[in-house]
Amino acid sequence: MANPGGGAVCNGKNGIMKEAQQNGKPHFYENLIVESFEEAPLHVLVFTYMGYGIGTLFGYFRDFLRNWGIEKCNAAVEREEQKDFVPLYQDFENFYTRNLYMRIRDNWNRPICSAPGPHFDVVERVSDDYNWTFRFTGRIIKDVINMGSYNFLGLAVKYNESMKTIKDVLETYGSGVASTRHEMGTLDKHKELEDLMAKFLNVEAAMVFGMGFATNSMNIPALVGKGCLILSDELNHTSIVLGARLSGATIRPFKHNNIEDLEKLLREAIIYGQPRTRRAWKKILILVEGIYSMEGSIVNLPQIVALKKKYKAYLYMDEAHSIGALGPTGRGVREFFGMNPDDVDVYMGTFTKSFGSSGGYIAGKKELVDYLRVHSHSAVYATSMSPPIAEQIIRSLKLIMGLDGTTQGLQRIQQLAKNTKYFREKLKELGFIIYGNDKSPVVPVLLYMPSKVAAFARHMLERKIGVVVVGFPATPLAEARARFCISAAHTQEMLDTVLEALDEMGDLLHLKYSRHRKSARPVLNDEMSFELDD
């Protein structure tokens, strides 16, 4: 994944020089899949591991003090009356949470009391016992720049007149369905949304679900089972991992976006078949994401499609972060690479990011969708999508597709691309190590050391900038990071304010690890901000 010399790497032996015929024009992909995964200097990794080592030693020492009653233990413990029972709390498994995460827990789960627009309001809280418990001060931190929400197209906002149709649906249908899709929970709004989503993706049919996580975890088991093989990218989302495990199929992970490793596994699967019996696999399903939410990388779709056709496998693509955010008209990774809709067998996505709503969808051939309508646990047992939620998605789709009679949707997609390009370029010039594709609105900035993760988030909030920081076990131990999510609603002034704060923080905490910085302090863009039309 990483390039020892730093800089950019191109996943795949020859990059790619594959042509796809669409609208009679060839598409070259090589310049689209070059991604940056610069390695940190050696001394940074040494100090990072030393920090975890010292933290572990102090953790054992504090556990010793707690066991002898010298220090108060705030963690959950077994009752004395149940000491002979099987332990309910695995003490060692909670070691990391108890001794490291708890010290920096104030940087997560911060309560928000406004819409997640480009600015939001944060409820201030403090802790008197080193983050074991919190109390609210009654103060609201107003107008914090939101750099953490997946509000890619800026559609998650408070009520305005453009949302009148949502209000009308709420008055007509109520807030909930109180039934499953199989019983009395299929509304005309669900059918309208599914038809519109299929049209948007240029596929035969689509089905929507009330929860994005369950769209993966409950539908993958309906597609594969015992005697099937799943080849899953090692960095796939937890919902994909859970769905794969629940399916009962054999799972073999391949290195992130690594075409050679995937082909090796496909070749072995074809040659050797199932373990012991050597029978051919019933199905081989490749599971990938469009944009990987922790890496900011984009799936190498053209080469993966070529492999799945060569070895007669099926391709399942999760576009939770890419639908609406990639492609000239927001149709995701497939459009981004200019490929045929039939190249992907199963399209999955969520409505929680670009659409400012909730839920998910599965799309593809009509036979596939009809099968899932009968066999999906999410369709059989889960409550249907709320009607106002469905209407918000319909409204967003019409905006993106231009069916509302305006070009505002296209403007938002273009503004998102412009903001992404600007923010990533300036971060590189400042000297930060960032991961992923230059077109990806998910921008991970590497912090590495756990102490710097906490200090970074706290100092940024003091500057009224809200950020998301991520560490182990969500990332590798030595690759803690801040994850910025760019939005079309961000103005140039907002991004410049964030960049100026990052420049100060980079100097204060010594976070500018890149060996490929272009300038010590680049001049920020002073052009007039491009404001979205109302």
TrEMBL record:
Mention one GO biological process in which this protein takes part, according to its record. sphingosine biosynthetic process
Q: Which cofactor does it need?
A: pyridoxal 5'-phosphate
Q: What pathway is it annotated to?
A: Lipid metabolism; sphingolipid metabolism; Sphingolipid metabolism
Q: Which InterPro entries match?
A: Aminotrans_II_pyridoxalP_BS, Aminotransferase_I/II_large, AON_synthase_class-II, PyrdxlP-dep_Trfase, PyrdxlP-dep_Trfase_major, PyrdxlP-dep_Trfase_small
Q: Does the keyword Transport apply?
A: no
Give the enzyme class: transferase
Question: Record keywords: Transmembrane helix included?
Answer: yes
Note the Pfam families from the entry.
Answer: Aminotran_1_2
Q: What is its main location?
A: endoplasmic reticulum
This protein's GO CC annotations: endoplasmic reticulum membrane; serine palmitoyltransferase complex
The catalytic activity, as recorded, is: L-serine + hexadecanoyl-CoA + H(+) = 3-oxosphinganine + CO2 + CoA
**How is it placed in the membrane, per its record?**
Single-pass membrane protein
Alphabetical UniProt keywords: Acyltransferase, Endoplasmic reticulum, Lipid metabolism, Membrane, Pyridoxal phosphate, Sphingolipid metabolism, Transferase, Transmembrane, Transmembrane helix
Q: Where does it localize?
A: Endoplasmic reticulum membrane
Which GO molecular function entries does the Swiss-Prot or TrEMBL record give? pyridoxal phosphate binding; serine C-palmitoyltransferase activity
**Record-stated family:** Belongs to the class-II pyridoxal-phosphate-dependent aminotransferase family.
Q: How does it assemble?
A: Component of the serine palmitoyltransferase (SPT) complex, which is composed of SPTLC1, SPTLC2 or SPTLC3 and SPTSSA or SPTSSB. The heterodimer consisting of SPTLC1 and SPTLC2/SPTLC3 forms the catalytic core of the enzyme, while SPTSSA or SPTSSB subunits determine substrate specificity. SPT also interacts with ORMDL proteins, especially ORMDL3, which negatively regulate SPT activity in the presence of ceramides. Forms dimers of heterodimers with SPTLC1.
What task does this protein carry out? Component of the serine palmitoyltransferase multisubunit enzyme (SPT) that catalyzes the initial and rate-limiting step in sphingolipid biosynthesis by condensing L-serine and activated acyl-CoA (most commonly palmitoyl-CoA) to form long-chain bases. The SPT complex is composed of SPTLC1, SPTLC2 or SPTLC3 and SPTSSA or SPTSSB. Within this complex, the heterodimer consisting of SPTLC1 and SPTLC2/SPTLC3 forms the catalytic core. The composition of the serine palmitoyltransferase (SPT) complex determines the substrate preference.
Q: What name has this protein been given in UniProt? A: Serine palmitoyltransferase 2
